[in-house]
Amino acid sequence: MQHRIALIEDDPIIGEALSERLDFEGFACDWYRDGKSARRGLGQRRYSVVVSDINLPDISGEQLFSDLLEGGQSLAPFIFITGYGAIDQAVRLLKLGAHDYVTKPFNVGELVGKIRSLCERQQPVADAAAVLGISTSMRQIEGLLPRLAASRSAVLISGESGAGKEEVARALHRAGDPEARTPFVAVNCGAIPENLIESELFGHDKGAFTGADRERRGVFEQADGGSLFLDEIGEMPPSMQVKLLRAIQDRAVVRVGGATPRKVDIRLVCATHHDLKAMVEQGGFREDLYYRIHVIHLHVPPLRERQEDILWLAGRFLDERANKGKPRRTLSADAERALTRYPWPGNVRELQHCLERACVLSLTPLLNAESLFAAGGPPAATEDALRQPLSDHLQDCERAYIRRALNECDGRIADTAALLGISRKNLWEKMRKLEMAEG
């Protein structure tokens, strides 16, 4: 496995010469020409060494390094390239934690020697893109996935609605099946009517009930050999919990109207925004089922607690949109500040909706704060707002977010719940808790 080097250099002559030399020396080299692309690249790949010019066209190398440190990101050793007039700045960077610096004009062989010396002290890092985020918490979750994929143990993922629980489940599935040969089946337990959930999970035979004119495989059978993701498991009706427990224990299902058990081999991943342990204590969730699905627990923090992921996610969404043939959009500096200062009560889902709306409505390629938050704008950090307890401020944000979603759906609860990615029951509960009118 090769050591991968990140080169951040805007000068085309120096950049081309260094990248070619590093390739010749047997390193894999990614060349970034500005700080913004470098920030994104350092979040998406793991590097053995970073070589960065201090003077970049959009942001200084010092500012980039400081921002990465403040974001809590795990960094590879940095070597800075500087002119004679910026040696004091280079020394300041060494005090911040940079490894070394070279001054222009520098000896390329000497620089390569420094890089090779650093690489010899470490194992080559896996050439894998970050798929969940660049924050410490999401990197830790991502680091656990290969071990979890090998174990086939049941996994419970907790976190607020929209925080990215399904993305974690999909990443776990990919870790166990990188060639995508097995199915990944996802179902929202809170979105299925209670009288249909048994048929949805276990399937039915022909003639099992009125309208069952042909046999149908349930999601357990559809996921056979792969992964079954049961989202919002806390919304599972009590009458179904015992049947679900039996299916998990026996690794077999019996279709509605049938009598023959059908064996299934699945990786079970469940998710919830509820406190299942509290539900067990209150009698709302079976204790034996709780311990069956709670073998491994992963908690996905809300987006407001991992701010370093906000711009990374925004960049990924904009790239994905551009890759689908849509006009490429970029974020202005004030847009980036607005994104990182907003508390995102709707988490990653709200961020995605915000960017999608701005891309559709904006008349220019550059998205500013006004185009992102045209519907009401981000909450102003007024003196009165800053006196609020954090919980009250987040409730205000969540209330405003739900109102915007209701307006977009003309007040239709079912459509609003679908837009927010939650069940109707969950939406009603949130509206009641937030003292929002139901009309």
Overview of this protein structure:
This protein has helices at 12-24, 35-44, 61-70, 87-96, 108-120, 136-151, 165-176, 197-202, 219-222, 238-250, 276-281, 287-293, 308-323, 333-341, 347-361, 369-372, 383-386, 390-408, 413-420, 424-433, and strands at residues 4-8, 28-32, 49-53, 78-82, 100-103, 155-158, 184-188, 203-204, 216-217, 227-231, 252-253, 262-263, 267-272, 296-299, 330-331, 366-367. Helix 4 (87-96) links the parallel strand 4 (78-82) and strand 5 (100-103). Mean pLDDT is 86; it is low at 380-386. A 5-stranded parallel beta sheet has the order 2-1-3-4-5, with helices on both faces. A 5-stranded parallel beta sheet has the order 7-10-13-6-14. It is globular and about 80 Å long. The chain is built from 20 helices and 16 strands. The chain has 3 domains: 4-120, Rossmann fold (3-Layer(aba) Sandwich), CATH 3.40.50.2300; 136-299, Rossmann fold (3-Layer(aba) Sandwich), CATH 3.40.50.300; 303-433, Helicase, Ruva Protein, domain 3 (Orthogonal Bundle). It has 439 residues and is of the alpha/beta class.
What's the arrangement of secondary structure elements?
Elements: E1 4-8, H1 12-24, E2 28-32, H2 35-44, E3 49-53, H3 61-70, E4 78-82, H4 87-96, E5 100-103, H5 108-120, H6 136-151, E6 155-158, H7 165-176, E7 184-188, H8 197-202, E8 203-204, E9 216-217, H9 219-222, E10 227-231, H10 238-250, E11 252-253, E12 262-263, E13 267-272, H11 276-281, H12 287-293, E14 296-299, H13 308-323, E15 330-331, H14 333-341, H15 347-361, E16 366-367, H16 369-372, H17 383-386, H18 390-408, H19 413-420, H20 424-433
Parallel strand pairs: 1-2, 1-3, 3-4, 4-5, 6-13, 6-14, 7-10, 10-13, 15-16
Antiparallel strand pairs: 8-9, 11-12
